[in-house]
TrEMBL record:
This is Patatin. Residues 39-235 form the PNPLA domain. It comes from Heracleum sosnowskyi. The active site is at 83 (nucleophile), 222 (proton acceptor). It is an enzyme of class 3 (hydrolase). Lipolytic acyl hydrolase (LAH). It holds the Pfam family Patatin. A motif (GXSXG) lies at residues 81-85. Belongs to the patatin family. InterPro entries: Acyl_Trfase/lysoPLipase, PNPLA_dom. The nitrogen atoms of the two glycine residues in the GGXR motif define the oxyanion hole, and stabilize the oxyanion that forms during the nucleophilic attack by the catalytic serine during substrate cleavage. One of its GO terms (biological process) is defense response. Keywords: Hydrolase, Lipid degradation, Lipid metabolism, Plant defense, Signal. The keyword Lipid metabolism applies.
Length: 405
């Protein structure tokens, strides 16, 4: 169809630009294998509990295959995450003193349940400036991540941010950090930046050094404004590495999604008919677009459109090459009430989010309808838990191949 062709062509043009730059950076050696593996985690504040629940399930399946020490970071070439997804990415890939991941996936939700109410105090929001001062969030991230830098993560990560001074997205990645000192920031700084949601948390400033010793300045806010769903960011990075010859995969070429496994986890989206309507918003003042009934409509609109467009583009690419089963997007687009919020951290709401994650596992695998943007169940592919179990086996087999090599 025309839409599919246009979207695939847009991605091809993006990759063509990357090809022009393919020989400008030194190569980063990758482990030999047969399948490229990608994990992506959306932004969404306290709704990070939803992908946290799903990641715990996936890791448990990997442990059934490979033993209790199996960790998510062992199985993915790239893990990308924005905002709360960036925090989850960091926790899964930051090394502890024994060079193991800082968090097991089963402990991610424990972090949210314990720390969420302190990050977003329900009775202590600011009347001026950002809704929350972010001091505790910054302190706990610095305490947990210490002096770990981007080039030290246990697998390649990509964490989007947005520079409010330059008005451009800034992507922090392990591969960039290994060749550019100015991008080798503290992981804590990157996490603080990617979670600095406008109106909710203050922007974050920090500095790094270029190779010649000059200072690079960053004035960053939440990566949600650049890539709330960072799946395409991660795939493009992978294709860039393939173009540069940094992946030694057998018979794999750029755009060959038949040899790529992608797991993309959403943090939920509001049920369309329950959110806004034209007759209501046409009467809004500018302040209503910034804050309305506990939500920030502008952020909702930008993040929802970003998520849907990325999913449509990625789905188009995989479907065009007959590899739709290699791309698994798990998302609930029917959230209502408090579960749509990014900062309601009552025990009741957090438990509801965990329940949504568990129920998502038992829902049928769904794919986006490229024409309507709606998620539709796929006949014959079972539940999301079935799909994750299948992916776990494929990931385990791939890891065994790499260990053998």
């Amino acid at each position: 169809m025309k839409t599919t062709g246009f979207l695939v062509m847009a991605l091809l043009l993006e990759l063509a630009t990357a090809l022009e730059c393919a020989n400008k950076l030194p190569a980063i050696q990758k482990t030999k294998g047969k399948t490229v593996t990608v994990l992506s985690i959306d932004g969404g504040g306290i709704r990070g509990i939803i992908p946290g629940t799903i990641l715990a399930f996936l890791e448990s399946k990997l442990q059934e295959l490979d033993g209790p020490n199996a960790r998510i970071a062992d199985y993915f070439d790239v893990i990308s995450g924005t905002s709360t997804g960036g925090l989850l990415t960091a926790f899964l890939t930051a090394p502890d003193k024994d060079n193991h991941p800082l968090f097991a996936a089963k402990d991610l939700n424990k972090f949210y349940f314990e720390q969420g109410p302190i990050f977003f105090p329900q009775d202590n929001a600011s009347a001026t400036g950002p809704k929350y001062d972010g001091k505790y969030l910054r302190s706990i991230l610095r305490e947990l991540l210490g002096n770990i830098t981007m080039n030290q993560t246990l697998t390649d990560v990509i964490i989007p941010t947005f520079d409010i001074n330059l008005l451009q997205p800034i992507m922090f990645s392990t591969s960039d950090a290994k060749v550019k000192s100015s991008k080798n920031a503290l992981l804590a700084d990157v996490c603080i930046a990617t979670s600095a949601a406008p109106t909710f948390l203050p922007a974050h400033y920090f500095e790094t050094k270029y190779e010649d010793g000059k200072t690079r300045k960053f004035n960053l806010i939440d990566g949600v404004v650049a890539a709330n769903n960072p799946t395409q960011v991660a795939i493009t990075q992978i294709f860039n590495d393939i173009l540069k010859g940094n992946f030694e995969f057998v018979d794999i070429k750029p755009m060959d999604t038949t040899k790529m496994l992608v797991v993309s986890l959403g943090t939920g989206a509001a049920m369309l008919e329950e959110k806004y309507n034209a007759s209501t918003v046409s009467q809004w003042s500018p302040i209503n677009w910034i804050f309305d009934n506990g939500s920030t409509p502008l952020i909702d609109v930008y993040s929802a459109s970003s998520n849907d467009m990325v999913d449509i583009q990625v789905s188009s690419l995989f479907q065009a090459l007959g590899a739709e089963k290699n791309y698994l997007r798990i998302q609930d687009d029917n959230l209502i009430g408090n579960t749509t919020s990014v900062d309601i951290t009552t025990a009741r709401n957090m438990e509801a989010l965990a329940d949504i994650g568990n129920k998502l596992l038992e829902k049928s695998v769904a794919r986006v309808n490229i024409d309507t943007g709606a998620f539709e169940p796929v006949v014959g592919e079972g539940t999301n838990s079935d799909a994750l179990t299948r992916f776990a086996k494929l990931l385990s087999d791939e890891r065994k191949i790499r260990i053998a090599n």
